[in-house]
Amino acid sequence: MSERAPGPLLRVEGVSKHYGGVRALEDVQFACRAGSIHALLGENGAGKSTFIKILSGVVQPDTGKIELGGRPMAFATPGEASAAGVSCIFQELSLLPDLSVADNICITAPPRRFGLIDKAGQRRLASEMLARIGGEDIHPDAPVGELPLSRQQMVEIAKALARNPKVLILDEATSALTAGDVAKVFALLKRLREEGMAIIYISHRMNEIAELADDCTVFRNGRYIETFRAGTKTDNEIVEMMIGREYSSAFPPLGDTMRAGSPALSVKNLSWAGELKDITLSVSPGEVVGLGGLDGQGQRQFLLALFGALIGVGGEIEIAGKPVKIGSPKQAKSPELGLALIPEDRKNEGLMLPMTVRENLSFAALDTVSRFGRVDRAKENELIDEIVRRLAIKADGVDGPVAALSGGNQQKVVIGKWLMTRPRIVLLNDPTRGIDVGTKQEIYQLLRQLAAEGTAILFYSTDYDELIGCCDRVAVFYDGTITRMLQGAELTEHNLVGAALNIGTPATEQKEAAL
Amino acid sequence: MTVAQDPAMKRPKRGSWRYWFAAQRGVLVAVAIFAVMFAVYGAAQPIGMSADVVNTAVNKGALLALVAMAQTLPVLTGGLDLSVGMTFMLANCLASAVVSGSPGMTALGIVIVLVAGLLCGLVNGLIVVYGRLQPLIATLATSAIYFGIALAVRPTPGGDINGAFADWMTRSTYAVPSSAVLLLAAVVLVWLPYRNSVLGRSIYAVGSSPQAAYASGVNIARAKLSAYTLAGLFAALGGLLLTCITYSGEARAALGNDYTLNSIAAVVIGGTSLFGGFGSAIGSIFGAFVMRTVGDLLIVFNINPVLQPLFVGVVLLFAVSLGSLRLLRIRNKLDLYR
Amino acid sequence: MMTSKTLAKIDPAVLIAFGCIVLLLGIGSIAKPGFLSAAYLVQQLQTASFLGIIASGVMLVMLMGQIDLSIPWVIAMGGMMATGAEGILGHTLGQPLAIPFGICCGLLAGLVNGVGVAYLRAPSMIFTLGMNAVAQGLMVWHTGGFAPQDAATPLMVALASGHLIPDVPNPLLIWIVLGGVIVWMLTRSRLGRQIYAIGNKERAVFLSGVDSRKVTVLVFAISGACAAAGGVLLSGWASRSYQAMGDPYLLPTIAAIVLGGTNVLGGRGSYLGTIAGVILITLLQSILSVLQPQDYFAQLGVKLPDDVFRQVVFGLVIIVMMMLYGRERVIR
Asked: Which of A168, A307, C141, C153 has the fewest CB atoms within 10 Å, measured from its CB?
């Protein structure tokens, strides 16, 4: 494979995919050379995930063709794709938690002796693979479920490589890795490129793409936009291509910042299970405080701790000046505390999908719309009408299943469900992930509106633009604690990224990563 | 390049004992419980631990052990087989009708019984995999069918079996009961090769996470089919042994249901997770012996043997409650709610 | 317009189940002239009401995505404790309190189930199985030591075989009242919403600030009480209680519930469907005893017990009907 093939190794043409009535991909084209790293860029919902699911055989396209090395391919299952030489490192890990590292790495084609799995050979192979990517610290006999997330990610990479793929797809594969691991993986990817592998790399981190990519392709809204050589466009141009407009006007104006008076919520030295350390923060009524930083630095746990979902939280929490202990979400939502949490995973944590919009909307506030255990339909309707109108939830009546709604409207139902409890403090856990731009705008407007009404808001987002556009202040998390508080003129993307990486400037990190 | 230059220095060459113990912890606990109970039983037994006592105990235990092995496989895939008891009983009735006559005919009869078991299992598997019914419903329905067939084969208790074969299956040779040899053979010749094959490992994969297994290219349909089919074989082996012990066949609903329910209990005591993906048929064997020894202990200690279900139930509730100790380690309440 | 909308809202499973009931009635009327007479149908409904009362509680448990395998011996416990109340509580208390005592024992067993499932997070399948064995052991102990009082009290007999309203057997009346309460609970009450929600996504329920564990305990307790109430009525019907009286009820109960369209994984199902499933199962068993397929085989020289057909047809009907509307989604 050291000789480079003249044409593209992988070529995709005219691929479309619909889920029900929703278009995920429309007439997409893509081509990738052997011995190159090809970055795939696009917003959430741009169709990247669907695209790589098609490439790796998890879903089948409605139309279009895929060619590998000049031959047409149709993968009915992931097994067929990997046998043909396409391996994917999925964002949601495809690991089997109860099986050992070695079992996972050699899941489909282990070394065999007398027809049975050669345990020793498999262990050896797994160790070799791990050593190759720099994960020697992982024991091949350890059950994967017991490894920390960063180690699992390394196993996932080793597993994909163990199949000797011609095409390797990495979907946000470095999101959970430590800086040291990222350096090792990058070195490996570069070496694999030299060996002639075609690598498709999906990441939201522009610095990673700048370091690795040879070519870039941008998707937007399920469509192919453009392919260009890396380094021929500025970051700004790329971002504009991804979002299809300039985003400066996308955010509603901030309100009068910094209201006086006692904070609605104040936290002192909050800590939990080694994952949250000494967090001190206060939010005033009418203030939107963002939680920033890289994904997985304790922001989610912080919100869960405030909402009473964690056990053994240390430190002090005061609400409206009164010290409180929050033991459960039930207590957190009580009128005395007035907390609401919009969870990150709306399908598993926010909604009961097969149930109706009505049942979902009134679920958290059932106590207020029922008397002696009986749901007061009239009162319920009144409140639901108000919420549906206020959030402009587009649904064919409130008695259809919430699963039939679009992602954006589902998210509105989650938010609406909590507004029905009339909270004074709203905690949002990445509420705009995977929803359309229009709904995002509406959510930003709503946040500012709520703030104007005096609600205190804690807003975690993985999207830096959102934090900059929506928040009065942003607390940057690193390794379970707040390392920096940015506000006013300091609140720039440059500072946010720098603080997120816990270094002076992003440039330093790049240098470090290249080592 | 930061990749280790001499991986052999750091690479763990052999499996470490720690992981082996962790993987086998369920089995080891079951073995320990059984050993203690059996030692107490032996010590309290007025006539001591004679070969006869051991033989009877093993014969009784082996029946449930085989049915429990059968139950283990579907449970490992994250499913369940409520028809193992009825398959066991169907095999018993069938064996009481066909396993007799000349050695050749007897051998043919044995093959018929085992194939019938495989077929029962295969039907379960086909309904679960291609019919896409919940294993609970599918096997509940087939258990009724298998019971009906067993009743058709043997409307009233009776029948016969080749005496020489039955005697050979139930006696001890040099103090080693044949039924123990049968169990050992089932483990060494069927379970271990299966567990160490790609197919066998795929049932663990499916049980551990169906989505991840699919994304990893595991053939889920084949994994589940093999698990249910093999379960039928183990159950039929048990039914064959039962016929050797009783010299007759009987289709009685309570008998089949008892075995089904006790097999689930044995699987749990044997350390297999009901959610799938973790456990072993070997653990289930010891789980079955624990269940049976409870009854023997009651007799030895002069406790009314009718109390056996009570003690079995208490042991079972105790065993599942032990699993709740893990709750003490949970720091994030979301982990409680899947 | 209105009807089509209402029809569309009813689960196809329920419609199919009712369709099958009509089909069975048709077959029955052809096979036996008196099949469609009011007296015969009322008798069928009376038989169905025992199953219906038992299934009511289990259905609620299944709506939460759990299962209650302890019903066989909780039924027996309900019957045996009610008939034995006099021996346990004494004559003055035992006679009047027989029925509440029996039901309370079932409620208690259900309560333990609920605590095990909700607070110990034990899989309900195995925990209720253990409870079944414990209940069995306790009942065997109860009868083993001394000859207990096993005769039903006059009130129990009256409840099971009398007619408070002319032509409406009392068990049917009880089932109608109980069914009405459950329908109200599932459609109009906060508890009903919470039961469905737990079956759909317990995690979301927890994060909505609802204590799903209390609901779980309550529902298991209801299930135990319903099973015990069924046992009380069954022993009134037979004028006595006996061991293993609940054994024939586990399979039909679960079958009736799933045939009525309740999802075993929880979250979906209506009580109307359970009613349909219960009647369907009862009719099926009655049709088989009317059709006498064994006579046909006997003519061919094959003597088969009638239970053969009951079991095989039973199994096939479940498989075929579930293939129609109870299939799982493909893993992707």
From this structure: C141
